[in-house]
Specification:
The complex is a heterodimer of chains A (55) and B (153).
Chain A: H1 21-31, H2 33-40
Chain B: E1 18-25, H1 28-38, H2 42-45, H3 47-54, H4 61-75, E2 82-93, E3 102-116, E4 119-129, E5 135-146
Classes of the chains: A mainly alpha (55), B alpha+beta (153).
């Protein structure tokens, strides 16, 4: 793809991602330990900083 | 990480405060592993493939961002009484991060404003700097925190 392929106003479908508990916790272990702590306490998981593997 | 006491409130982050913390060294293996999962572009995956474009392997900017967040958690976020994280205002990747770079964080509080009787909002400017004091990344974001000694709703 080149510059010319990125026209203003063009809408592109870029796939989808699925979140699993395991993938959220795996990311959290590396980059956001607050999520791990919340999960251990059985509390709500913070709403940001979650990611997952592409499906 | 075990749960820490949440003892940092809005008042602990006054405007113009400066803090410096963290320290993490990136290996080529770290860079490639992150890129395989989250940013599979050639210059993050393979040193030879990266040479024409970037002079060699460089870390994904999202990897640097994730490391910033981890250093923030370790330094203060895990102890902060966070009410809301509205998002990131701006992020810029000023210089490439390469294998062997050692990164740390400089944080300046740009703004500290009471938003409600029990909530205050701060705006931080983070700089990720390397071992040569070169700024590799900046991020500006806002955070809402509980005010100390105020009744919650």
């Amino acid at each position: 793809m080149f510059y010319e392929d990125m026209r203003v106003g063009r809408v592109m479908q870029l796939g989808s991602m699925a979140f699993t508990r395991d993938s959220i916790l795996a990311y959290a272990a590396r980059f956001d330990p607050r999520i791990l702590a919340a999960a251990r306490e059985g509390g709500p998981v913070p709403p940001r900083d979650c990611t997952s593997r592409a499906r | 990480m075990t749960a820490l006491a949440r003892d940092l409130a809005f008042e602990d982050f006054p405007a113009d405060e400066f803090a410096e913390y963290g320290g993490v060294e990136l290996t080529a293996e770290d860079i490639v592993a992150f890129a395989h999962e989250f940013d599979p572009q050639p210059f993050h995956l393979d040193n030879e493939a990266a040479k024409p474009a970037t002079g060699g392997l460089i870390a994904s900017g999202w990897h640097t961002s994730a490391l910033l967040h981890r250093m923030n958690c370790d330094a203060f976020l895990a102890r902060a009484m966070v009410v809301r994280e509205p998002g990131i205002e701006e992020v810029r990747w000023a210089r490439p991060v390469r294998p062997g770079d050692r990164l740390r964080v400089r944080r300046r509080t740009l703004l500290a404003v009471a938003r409600a009787a029990d909530v205050g909002e701060v705006e931080f400017l983070y700089e990720i700097v390397n071992q040569d004091d070169v700024v590799a990344m900046t991020q500006r974001c806002r955070l809402q925190l509980r005010r100390r000694g105020r009744r919650t709703n």
